[in-house]
Amino acid sequence: MLPEHGRPVTELLAELTTLKAADLPVRGGKVTAYVYDTGLPEVHEAAHRAYAEMLEVNMLDPTAFPSMVALERQVVGAVAELLGRPGAPGIFTSGGTESIMLAVKAARDARPGTTRVVLPVTAHPAFHKAAHYLGMEIVPVPVDPVTYRASVPAFEAALDERTALAVASAPSYPQGVVDPVEEVAALAAARGVPCHVDACVGGWLLPWLREAGAAIPPFDLAVPGVTSISCDLHKFGYAPKGASVLLFRDAELRRRAYFASAAWPGYTIINATVQSSRSAGPLGGAWATLQALGREGYLELGRRTLEATRRLAEGVGKIPGLRVLGEPEAALVAIAGSAEVDVFVLADEARRLGWFLQPQLSYAGIPANIHVTVTGVTLAGVDAMLEVIAEAADAARRRGPADVPEGLPELITSLDLDALDDATFAELAASVGIDLTATGQPGMAVVNAVLDALPAATREAILVRFLSVLYS
């Protein structure tokens, strides 16, 4: 609602504080997804101040604001140096999804007539989104049921003359394992197909883990056949949200990501990203974070993250009814339950104890699990986290599995969801005990159990309706 008269700043800030009261905390390590915390307040403060300093600089026209060009060169240059090809051309984007969108566009435009993106089933849905927006086709490849890495023989069989892009993850988000990048890139190169490595999570983490002593396989632009790689700085770079870098092996491929239009009588249109006008605030925040931490700072965070990840995985293995999926090479740990411990109930119980553990649905033979992203601040609280997971597992064992109303998944699958308006959909959910309009932090075990029982296409339709109701 727009007020009739302007309100005082103090009043506005007080209202924001009230509105955020039910939010998950962004600092402290009790939220194990969505946010990344160094545990170093002075670093975050430097980023916030730099973000504000660059907030009103418009990245639409680099000739008008040379400061943003200078900062982008420094930030992209730092990522290129870390990821195996100093001086590699790149683009600063708003996040992993935009980096992936541009990588897919560049590959498509570099080889007109190609329409297919070949990727593991564990690849991020941003590739599906890119394919949807760009009119392309996703060709999923299975992963090994034990290691969760992409199947190389299946990749080889899937590549053909219609393939625009081959994709590998370093790591894949669901289980934190690195796909066989060298093998996939070699197969792609032999067919003249570009190969993109999605290192949005791992790009600014894996090199520091390697330097801290972890066995990290080759994954970056130093690998023959890798033609582009994405790296989010607002993840393990610890920059404020809105900061990612997309690197290319050569400038020719980068130019394919650009968009220009002269077919109108207005100002010159040339965009490096999907967006046109965009604030340089995220760029300033990313630059300040990199400068404030430096190599020594990131290496120390890498050491802490590596130790915390190992302690978490080892500790979970000692909790009855739980197991870690695969052998995580990055700071991502997926924890599966058992017949006696429902992970969706466990997640609700952990939230009741003040911790957010991210539920992941089953798919392609991979069981449902809870996901933990380990960050620089986790080591200080890893023992407390293990205690919470153990207590939540005990509570889940006592409660039993989430109670899905009999016949509900089948009923939902049979419905024509497009024929229901948002109000009717919300009423239908409420009739089976799922309140989509509730405020605060809801219990999600039943919702997740219902979604888990549905095919992927129906899950997607339900999620779209949920979002529509939420914002109505």
Please explain how this structure is put together.
This protein has 472 residues and is an alpha/beta fold. It folds into three domains: 46-290, Aspartate Aminotransferase, domain 2; 294-399, Aspartate Aminotransferase, domain 1, CATH 3.90.1150; 408-470, no CATH class. Helices cover 42% and strands 12% of the residues. It has a seven-stranded mixed beta sheet with strand order 1-7-6-5-4-2-3, with helices on both faces. A four-stranded antiparallel beta sheet has the order 10-11-13-12, with helices on one face. The chain has a two-stranded antiparallel sheet with strand order 8-9. α4 packs across α5, α11 packs across α12 (382-399) and α14 (422-431) packs across α16 (456-470). The longest helix has 36 residues, at 281-316. The radius of gyration is 23 Å and the shape is globular.
Keywords:
472 residues; alpha/beta; Aspartate Aminotransferase, domain 2; Aspartate Aminotransferase, domain 1; seven-stranded mixed beta sheet; 16 helices; 13 strands; 12% strand
Number of strands: 13
Given this structure, which CATH class of the largest domain is correct?
A: Alpha Beta
Secondary structural class: alpha/beta
> What's the Cα radius of gyration?
23 Å
Total discrete domains: 3
How far the N terminus sits from the C terminus, by CA atoms, comes to 14 Å
CATH topology of the largest domain: Aspartate Aminotransferase, domain 2
Shape: globular
Q: What about the largest sheet?
A: 7 strands, mixed
What is the count of helical runs?
Answer: 16
Task: Report the portion of residues in β strands.
Answer: 5-15%
Protein name: Glutamate or tyrosine decarboxylase
Keywords: Lyase, Pyridoxal phosphate
GO molecular function: aromatic-L-amino-acid decarboxylase activity; pyridoxal phosphate binding
Organism: Microbispora rosea
